[in-house]
Structure formats: C-alpha cells, structure tokens
Amino acid sequence: MSAAQRVCIKVTPDKSLFHKQDLVSLSCFSEDPGPWTMFRNTSRVIKEPCEMWGKEGDSTCSVEGLRDKDSGLYWCEKNRHRSASVYITVTESLGTPPPPSFPPCPFSNSYSPSPSPSPSPSPSSSPPVSPSSSKLLVPLVSSGLGLILILLLLFILWCKYCRRKQTQEKRRRRERRGRKRGERQEREIQDRERVRERGEEKEGESKKKVKEGETE
Fold it and tell me: Which end of the chain, C or N, has fewer beta carbons within 10 A?
C-alpha cells in the first residue's frame, strides 16, 4: 500500500472554499499509529508546518480567522510518508456556491460506507456503475475542481497585483509632482536672489557716482 493510502486528511467543515474569518480544522487519519504533522504550501511559503500558521493538536491543526494568505495546498506527513493533498481557497466573495466536498476518508471513525443498492429489474433502468468506473470518476471530478480553484486563486492574485500597481503609480505621480513643485520654488528663489543682487549692484554704482561728483 502506498504512503498516500496509509493516511488521509479530513477537512472540517467538509468543503474546500472558505470565506475570510472562517474556522477550519484539518485532521490526519491513518492505519499507522503515532502523530502526523500537517504541512502546507502557499504563495508565500513552501512546506510550512502547522505550528507556524495554526493551532496544532494530536494529528490535527485548526485555523481561526482565515485570510487570503491561507489559500494553498495542505497535507499530512510523517517519516517521509504523506497523504494526498487537498487545496483550500479563502475568498471575500459571499455569493460563490460551495464546491463539492472532498472524498471520504476510509480511516476516519465517522466514515461508514453504505451498501450499494441492487439494480431495479425494470427494463428502463440504467445499467449499474461498476467499481472501476467509480474509481475513474473520482480523479476526473477532483482534477476539474482543482483547475477551477487554481483559476480562482490566479484571479485573486491578479487583482491584488493590479491594485498594487495602481498604488505604486499613484505614489510615483505624487513624487513627480512634489519634485516639480520643489524645482519651481527653487527657481523662484534663485530669480529673487538675482533681482536682489542686481538692485544692490545698481545701488552701489549710484553711490560711487555720487562720491566721484563730490570729489570733483
């Protein structure tokens, strides 16, 4: 059995799209005894342990007051064994419908698979779905959901980049206006200084002529 099959991660509440200030709890369930550590990858930090961003418990990690920076990939890990990852997105939008929940965790005590209903003998009924077909549908749904979440995250990052760029452009414009205003004031001071110097020169010449006339 692979490492991803020996442990699974459970998200409570069971969804992948959260709003700001929400509470989320992540738990590691495994057939192997011993505590597991929760890690995450975000746009800022790679492989960040729970103790750096959440409240750590016995193979659990909870986050109160989610923020944009908490969007990312989460998984359980121990002794180089790790679970499959889940992607969690934090958004400000309140009108976005919740995406499908994660696949059930087979090692969780709360997981109790229900028996499959027997197909109806009616000739109009659809043929039963084989177990192999069900296994193929799960990765297809997960990959489609992952693509949607990645696109949503890219859109949020793009909006932040545009706002940051607009703020920087406004700051540069204010700095240019300030420099121009300072240069204009400097020129005015220099002009007044030159006018004053010319006035002093003319006054000195006039006094000199008066003295020369008195001497004659």
Answer: C
Cis bond leading into 100, ω under 30°? Answer: no
Predicted model pTM: 0.47
72, two tokens: 């990312």
The C-alpha angle 107, 2, 35, rounded to 5 degrees, equals: 50
Do the Cβ atoms of 27 and 127 come closer than 8 Å?
no
